[in-house]
Sequence to fold (454 residues):
Amino acid sequence: MQKISKLPKFVTAQEGSPPLMKDIFSLLNECAYAKGGEVSARAHAKTLADMYLRLDKKDRKSFLQVLSFEYSPDYARLAEAFTKYSVAADIQSRCNAEIALRTVMYSPRKRILTQFNAIPAGIKFLVDLRAELLDFMKELPELNVLDSELKDCLASWFDVGFLDLVRLTWNSPAAVLEKLIKYEAVHKVASWRNLKKRLDEGDRRCYAFFHPKMPVEPLIFVNVVLTDKLEDNIQNLLDENTPSNDASQATTAIFYSISNCQYGLRGISFGNFLLKRVIDSMSRDFPKIKNFATLSPIPGLIKWMENNPEELTGACYPSDWKYLAKAGVTSPQSPIFRDIVKNPQKYFDNTELITALKTPLIRTAAKFLTTLHADGRPIDFVARFHLGNGARVEKLNWMADNSPKGVSQSLGLMVNYLYDISKLEKNIEKFTVEGKISASSAIKEMTERVSDSK
Fold:
């Protein structure tokens, strides 16, 4: 049974609460039960939100504990309603019992959350509140019931039908551009000049989802480059001095960075809808573009190799050992196979060794990207996202990211996922129903040879 953290005294003894907490209880009650009417309840919600923002970390945790446990559904009424629902003998009785059950399950804390949503800047307040809640749950896991309810509310209020797709340019508001720098999660923006390159009116595009009540807060954004090939090196794309491509002649759109911006919306998916909307938009604007693909990192590769050292040695064929021996690797028992995943930067700078390991590393990465976890999903979370949206593993790129981050997570390897519009639905069905990963013939050949060699 999960241990519940010790609750503050005022959770069960309101009379002994400090003055501030008495005010908070009073405001929570007004928001939960709206005894003075809905207008008054919303005014109290604003006061309560302002008060929460003035609390220190300790009192915020206490506030969330109070909200979670003092304003949960009435368990006795819930049990009674569930019993009636369970024994309902006919359709009408079951429908009536279900209505009653739903009414009882609508908790006072959900009414409070809904009141917050109605105040100015309330939606942003709730997003930030959940961000704090997620952090507090590491210490207080019993807050997961509040998190579940708040997440359900946010998922409804942030339904993709309510969101605006906006193309961002260098002329977008400075407040929004600052957020792009802050929230970029894949390839750090080094400077304003670097950001300007990513928003180049020629061959670059940046699209973001916004909620109408959070007009300067992007929810998620994607960077795109228009080109005539599958790009294979992220440094070239990010280099401020790289010449722009002729967008009017582009045949390929490369998504090279997708960043979620709001931690408080974790677990609420926007990325799949964003890519589909962007593909539709670009298909209309650039009819010559037929290929949509990514240049993506492989963040879990080194960790997987560390936990499965036999994968790299198993990907070394007889033809590879001649070159490996010259680099000082004479057998599968060589400590280098173990050490390279512990200090990848050290070995990445050893040109002879890393060149000898090129082909085995690519084979290992192909195996990694096409291997399913025990839960039936790809091990790599980036692969999980793109494959779940109908893409296929198209091509692995050697020395594609030689930044410290790229070396530490995948020894510089990156991957192209291809979005073939004509096969998206088929790929999604194969993936979700049959558990089959779509991959190019070259990737399949590599994984089949690795399997046959064992």
In short: The first strand starts at residue 164 and ends at 168.
